Amino acid sequence: MRRLTYFIGCSVDGFIAGPEGQHDSSGFDGDLKAAVLAEHPETVPDHARRLLGVVGTANRKFDTVVMGRGAYEAARATGATSPYPHLRQYVFSSTLIRPDPEVAVVADDPVEFVRGLKREPGMSIWLCGGAVLAGQLLGEIDELIVHRYPVVFGDGIPLFHTSFAPSHFTLTGSRVFTSGTTVTTYAKQ
User: Fold this and answer.
1) What is the largest CA-CA distance in the chain?
2) CA distances from 39 to 24, 43, 54, 120, 141 (A)
3) What span, in angstroms and rounded, lies between the C-alpha atoms of 129 and 123?
4) What letter does residue 110 receive in the DSSP assignment?
5) Tell me, what's the pLDDT at 25?
6) Residue 110's pLDDT is what?
7) C-beta separation of 73 from 130 below 8 A
8) What is the C-alpha separation between 95 and 92, in angstroms, rounded?
9) Which value, to the nearest 10 degrees, does the dihedral of the CA atoms of residues 80, 101, 130, 49 take?
10) Contacts of 48 (CB under 8 A, 6+ apart)
């Protein structure tokens, strides 16, 4: 069965973006950038893949990405209607009209939809974000890969937006990069 991985970046205080969707990826440099490009190049959006010279690089872990409307709109703000054309792309929204032939808009229950994806053959599924979608899919997440950047936001969009319900994970890996960014990997218990 395929696995769902929440591969996400956040601030030291646990926010994936500021209150208005602002980002600060200043920790994405040097050895961290080299590691991401080598290990997870498919998580780099198309416009950045061209700039970083990884267009045509084979997917290493994921062949599918699922995201909430907010995460999609953040990627779309770069001018791309298909931010990850090298992946099967699904955006969960009840109001978005299909913006691109390569992007499927799903209005169905995300849990049931992801369970269906997990039963299909293929590589792992990348949960790219949104806090609301991550909260809805918390019970389906098999792995967390969290890039914690050395910046404090003070307020913003949390890693998960859900009600209090502790979900336990086991630490399976931890790395520190020269930028001060840490990458921790957890598996569902």
Assistant:
1) 42
2) 22, 10, 12, 23, 20
3) 18
4) H
5) 65
6) 98
7) no
8) 9
9) -40
10) none
Residues 6+ apart with CB under 8 A from 12: 148, 149, 150, 151, 152
Distances (CA, A) of 78 to 43, 49, 83, 123, 176: 15, 13, 9, 27, 29
Beta strands in the chain (DSSP E): 4-11, 15-17, 62-68, 88-92, 103-106, 124-129, 143-149, 157-158, 169-176, 182-188
pTM, entire model: 0.95
The letter for the amino acid at 3 is: R
Burial class (CB in 10 A: 0-12, 13-18, 19+), 82: middle
Question: How do beta strands 15-17 and 157-158 pair?
Answer: antiparallel
Distances (CA, A) of 61 to 7, 8, 81, 101, 171: 11, 14, 23, 24, 19
Instruction: Give whole-number Cα distances, 173 to 118, 162, 186, in Å.
Output: 23, 25, 7
To which residue do tokens 């913006």 refer? 99
pLDDT at position 117 is 98
Q: What's the pLDDT tens digit per position in 53-88?
A: 898 999 999 999 999 999 999 888 888 899 999 999
Where helices occur in the chain by DSSP H, the ranges are 30-39, 46-52, 69-76, 110-119, 131-136
**What is the distance between the alpha carbons of residues 107 and 45, in angstroms, rounded to a whole number?**
23
Return d(Cα 31, Cα 78) in angstroms, integer: 25
**Residue ranges for the chain with pLDDT beneath 70:** 25-27
